[in-house]
Amino acid sequence: MTIRHPIGQGATIPRPGRSELMAQRVAAARLFLVPMLVVLAIVAGWPLLRSIYFSFTNASLNDLGNVEFVGFANYLSWRTLKSGRTIYTGLLVDAAWWNAVWNTIRFAAVSVSLEAVLGMLVALVLNAEFRGRGLVRAAILIPWAIPTIVSARRWAWMLNDQFGMINDLGMKLGLLSEKVAWTASPETAMVAVLIVDIWKTTPFMALLILAGLQMIPKDIYEAAEIDGVHPVRQFFRITLPLVRPALMVAIIFRLLDALRIFDLIFVLTPNSEATRTMSVLARENLFDFDKFAYGSAQSTLLFLIIAALTTLYIWLGKVNFEGNSR
Amino acid sequence: MPTLSTLAQLFKSAAFYFAVLLIVLFSVFPFYYAILTSFKSGTDLFRVDYWPRSFSLANFVTVFTSGNFPRNLWNSIFVAVLTVVLSLFLAITAAYALGRVRFRGRGLLLLTILAVSMFPHIAVLSGLFELIRTLGLYNSPWALIFSYTIFTLPFTVWVLTTFMRELPLEIEEAAIVDGATPWVIITKVFMPLMWPALVTTGILAFIGAWNEFLFALTFTSSDETRTVPVAIALLTGSTEFETPWGAIMAASVIVTVPLVVLVLIFQRKIVSGLTAGGVKG
Amino acid sequence: MGLTKFLSCTAIAAVLLAGQASAETIHLAAGGSGKQVDHLRAVLNEYEKASGDTVVLVPLPASSSEQFSQFKLWLAAGNSEIDIYRTDVIWAPQLANHFVDLTDVAKDVVKDFLPSTIAGQTVNGHLIALPFSGDAPALYYRKDLLEKYGKSVPQTWSELEATASEIMEKERAAGKPDMWGLVFQGNAYEGLTCNALEWIASNGGGNIIEKDGKVSINNEKAAAALDRAAGWVGKISPPGVLAYKEEESRGVWQLGNAVFMRNWLYAYAPGQGAESPIKDHFDAAPLPKGDGPEATSVSALGGWNLAVSKYSQHPEAAEKLALFLTKAEQQKKRAIDLTLLPTLTALYDDKDIVAAQPIIARWKDVFLSAAPRPAAATKLKYNEASSLFWGAVHDTLAKDGSAADNLEELEAKLADLEGGSW
């Protein structure tokens, strides 16, 4: 016999040993969490803390042994000139950095929204039962499955203005009147990056949303059919609310990846102010230039920005941590 | 004579299949074009062809005979499988705690786990490099399995937690009433219902580990331990500027096929196991 | 650890080791094409037999920027496993702290190398790498098209612009709509620094940053050179040239759609490939000069060097190997088998090389006019300085600001980067 009781903090049913059971559950929960937390702490703890530590020093890859603490200098420092003027330097007033931040956020917003919508559409299609569904599910995962280093350069080749396939096809189909130099100018380059990113990542979203769709019990739809509810209404009233948790998780992780994008920008765009993202800048400073500490500061700030945006999203989307838990 | 409703049905089916065709075409065409390239060589690489002009397996032969490709393939399989198994195991137990048991600081813990995924990989590279060397794992597959958890764990934990959270309360309660321990609840009650989530996270984590390049490049230094993405990056053309497209595309085909087969096999599990009313016992 | 102390330690070690005559295992980290690696392996096998040491070749990814990050990481960690690194001309000066000073070891052979190759690897008076092979870009031209329209090989950039423009127009009128005049590497990357250095230096505009560290880039001749190049984009060069690296420009050239191409030596052989549309229709010449009486032909110096790691546990054996691989006999072998440009001046007149690889003899003038990029002057900050420079050039080519304005800004930024000194 099942007994329904409200999910409330203090609501209990007079049953012997109830609080014992609860304590037991919490204890078991702790036990279950420990292995995962230990692994994560070891793997992630040292590198992340080290990176944050370096951002407060003058570390250089040239001489990692001699590292001096410089406080906030990498983030913001100022000096007063003889003329009385004060000049500020540091990451927080670095125009190139904030430009990159803006580029990244703009890109992430557009790509994640488009991928969420397209992913949902594809997931709905894959959710239906039709012949060859298995093959189609496997086929659409191909863009996500090809290594990025390969697909990024492959697309760069296809987008070449003189001998690229895209221009050729576009002109043959009458969509383009002349060959477009996709990767040469910042505007078209970002469009190119968007196209490739959508091509590559929609399968990821689709698959996660599909799993969510599959967790919705079929009888609900049957009941709705019997009640004569229109399919579109079904989608908005039944599907969307029930698939929301899966959709939210997919969007969160996609957002994290989009804000850290590097490969596609590196390969498909001219390395100019208008297209650089935060990761590109961080990588440059960490490894190409002799500015390891500055690069670490950029990575830390990148982390904080992502954390802020994600928290904002979770709060706005009212992502629910409660669910069916006791 | 076809009635209006059968015509409407026909139209709906046609539209549906057209959508399917579009999706498949969009996903697969670049890959198809890449395969075409793997059969080409020389100046042909700069020309646009939509159908195969010549057919040559030379590139595939090159891939298998340069370096130690079969060994690299095996390394990738080993690393990816172990990463997925480890992550899923750790995640499913954690997901139960985070999704079904209420305790203080749960939300904060979830956010902290997510925070690990917010750092760019390039930033953690040197710290991880130090760690790997200290633990003596440099140039071994364990270095990779160990470091891949940095991105697979947060992902698997979050996805499994989300799905586990949505499972109905009644099922768990029934099991508790029957005297089941949490471990039994996880394995016997929840897992069968979670197949879509498990398979999905498993596949995505597998692909993530399979295609990872930066850590694989930095933490291994010999042909015997390298994985496939690094092997592909090591492929060189006849001159140092040339990109050996033919060989690279052949390698990508070889590398993508196992993934496609994997998905084909496991996608059957992405089917609904839940029903709304009633309790499965 | 001071240099003298280090050298004396090595001397003592050498004496001790000489007594033992033990075989050592050296690790050499070298990239390069498959053919080059195979060739190197064969040479090393011979070396192993002769010297008794074992040499292990460590494979590296094809992309040079990835090699650089890898090297940086290894050296930062004080990796004692790798003894010798094959470095690009611009890397060793940036990693100078990690490499052994080879001045003493190489004092007998230093004068045989092309002076600019040695100068490029000397930081603060220390020679930190031995020149292994060289590279220099040339002007590839379609001799069939020049003949057809009765033009001669252009000696100055202005001539080139005029010739390219005329031929391009006429060829397009004759039914070849995809024909362009000149292709080069205009993407915002290190290759653009090379291209721009050539335009500027050949016009008498200096070397961006001179040997003593002075920032000389902001001058009229440099601005004129850049403005001229900016005028090519969209007119005689495809607009996409702003995203071209070496391979993309070679793609257009090899399909027969360009009258001129500026590229490194490697592009010659594929052009002569069996099914290449331009086979036997092209040749190469030194790059054009700028305007004015002081103008000369300038090519950017490229190539590879061998540097010995400070953290190596077999420095002596490593130095021995480095000297072996850069000596005349080995360079000659590489020149004949792999068409790699030697870095020893005398070899350019060597009869055997001229006979087997006429292209190398043809490249002699090109190589002799090669100028190094200011890596030795800027040392640790080279990559960043280069990045600022190519940024300014790319902006100018993309018509984002005039050359004069961009160079003025660049000068200020470089001054900031320099700080007190490089």
Spatial arrangement of strands, main beta sheet of chain A: 1-2
How many domain units of chain C?
2
Highest-level CATH class of the largest domain in chain A: Mainly Alpha
The counted number of beta strands of chain A is 2
Give the amount of beta strand of chain C, in percent. 5-15%
| Order of strands, widest sheet of chain C | 2-1-3-12-6
Q: How many angstroms separate the termini of chain C?
A: 22 Å
Second CATH tier, the architecture of the largest domain in chain A: Orthogonal Bundle
The helix-strand sequence of chain A is HEEHHHHHHHHHHH
User: How big is the Rg of chain A?
Assistant: 26 Å
User: On the 0-100 scale, what is the average pLDDT of chain C?
Assistant: 88
Instruction: Specify the number of helices of chain A.
Output: 12
By CATH, the topology of the largest domain in chain A is: MetI-like fold
| Relevant CATH superfamily of the largest domain in chain A | MetI-like
Number of helices of chain C: 18
What are the SSEs and their pairings?
The complex is a heterotrimer of chains A (326), B (281) and C (422).
Chain A: H1 18-54, E1 77-80, E2 86-89, H2 95-127, H3 133-140, H4 142-145, H5 148-158, H6 165-172, H7 186-214, H8 218-226, H9 231-259, H10 263-268, H11 278-288, H12 292-316
Antiparallel strand pairs in A: 1-2
Helix pairs in contact in A: 1-12, 2-7, 2-9, 7-9, 9-12, 11-12
Chain B: H1 4-38, H2 58-65, H3 69-100, H4 106-116, H5 121-134, H6 141-165, H7 169-177, H8 182-193, H9 195-211, H10 214-219, H11 228-234, H12 245-266
Helix pairs in contact in B: 1-12, 2-12, 3-6, 3-9, 4-6, 6-9, 7-8
Chain C: H1 3-20, E1 25-29, H2 34-51, E2 54-58, H3 64-76, E3 84-88, H4 115-120, E4 122-123, E5 126-127, E6 130-135, E7 138-142, H5 143-148, H6 157-173, E8 180-183, H7 190-202, H8 220-232, H9 246-254, E9 258-263, H10 268-271, E10 282-285, E11 299-300, E12 302-308, H11 315-326, H12 328-338, H13 351-356, H14 358-362, H15 364-368, E13 370-371, H16 375-378, H17 382-397, H18 403-418
Parallel strand pairs in C: 1-2, 1-3, 8-9, 11-13
Antiparallel strand pairs in C: 3-12, 4-5, 6-12, 7-9, 7-10
